[in-house]
Structures are given as C-alpha cells and as structure tokens.
Write a structure and sequence with these properties.
InterPro entries: Ribosomal_uL10, Ribosomal_uL10-like_sf, Ribosomal_uL10_bac, Ribosomal_uL10_bac_type, Ribosomal_uL10_CS_bac. One of its GO terms (cellular component) is large ribosomal subunit. There is one protein chain. By secondary structure, this protein is α+β, with helices and mostly antiparallel strands. It is about 60% helix and about 15% strand. The chain has 6 helices and 5 strands. It has a 5-stranded antiparallel beta sheet with strand order 2-3-1-4-5. Strand 4 and strand 5 form a beta hairpin.
C-alpha cells in the first residue's frame, strides 16, 4: 500500500473534524508535562472542544480549500489543534488561561468564525466570556428594570399604607378635640 493511501484517512478525519467548526486554534505543545497535558485535555473535554496532535502536512492538506487555509503559514514545528463546533471562543479562552500557568504552551494562530487571528488577536478573543455567561448577563440586565420597578411599587405601597394610617390618626384626634369644644 502506498504512503498516500495510508495518509488519506487521517487527512479525511481532520477535514471532517473542521468541517462545521466555529473555531480552530493551533498551539505548540512542546515542553508540557504529562500532568499538564492531561489537565488541558480535561478542560477541553468539559468545554466540548476537540484537541489533537497532528502532522503539519496532514493539517495542510485538510485545510486546503476551507476557511482554515489561512493557518497553513503557521504550521511549523510540532502542532496541536483545538477545534470547537459550539463555542467559538472556548479554545482561545482555555488555551490563554492555561498558558498563564504553563509557559511551555505557545499559541500559534487561530481561525474564529472565518477570520484568521495571530497570538495577540487570540488573547483578545480569550477575554470574551462564554455564551452562557453572556446570556446570563443579558437576562440579568433585562430583569433588572422589572425588579427595580417592583421594589419601587412595593415601597410606595408600604409608604401609602403607613401614610394612610397616620392621616387617619390626626383626623380622629381633630374630631375628638372638636367634640368637647362643641359642648
């Protein structure tokens, strides 16, 4: 069997992984300890991100003709690929956070929703919160005015009830004072 025939299934597997991906990030993983690599893979699994170490030539062939073709120029030295189909910023966010504690991990480049980003761009993207966090902030912002309105109405009702009681008391006192004066 020719070498090309042996490599074709690997290229197809990579192409299938990136087919519907929202983001792909390349990293240089050299120097990571087994513990660090295991912890990184665990974080990726929890976030639904696929992480593989692949040969650069295989990735170049898989990237041809796709929106990820811009990554071909960054495929030098050992490379690992992080692929996310759900959260576009998850790979960049996880890798940037992990790289703070593991200096050996180096980001190379990434494509997020069709745009190629260098290391600085990926670090800026990593600052964007996850979709769930953004949705919860939006929901909190939408609920805030309603909650504040309910609080104000409640305070008005409490003050109105207290003001009504105090208004009745002076009226009763005034009526009691007028009655003896009339006698």
């Amino acid at each position: 069997m020719a070498k090309v025939e042996l490599k074709q299934p690997i290229v197809q597997a990579i192409a299938e992984d990136i087919k519907d991906a929202q983001s792909v990030v390349l990293v240089d993983y050299r120097g990571l300890t087994v513990e660090q690599d295991t912890a990184l893979r665990k974080q990726f699994r929890e976030a639904g991100v696929s992480y593989k170490v692949c040969k650069n030539t295989m990735m170049k062939r898989a990237f041809e003709g796709t929106e990820f073709a811009g990554l071909q120029e960054f495929l030098e030295g050992p490379s690992a690929i992080a692929i996310s189909k759900e959260d576009a910023t998850a790979p960049a966010r996880i890798l940037c956070e992990f790289a703070k504690n593991a200096e050996a991990l180096e980001l190379k480049a990434g494509v997020v929703e069709g745009t190629v980003y260098d290391v600085a761009g990926l670090q800026e993207l990593a600052k964007i919160p996850s979709r769930e966090v953004l949705l919860s902030k939006l929901l909190g912002s939408l609920q805030s005015p309603i909650t504040n309105l309910a609080r104000v109405l409640n305070q008005i009702a409490e003050q109105g009830g207290a003001a009504g009681e105090t208004a009745e008391a002076p009226a009763e006192e005034a009526a009691a004072e007028e009655a003896p004066a009339a006698e």
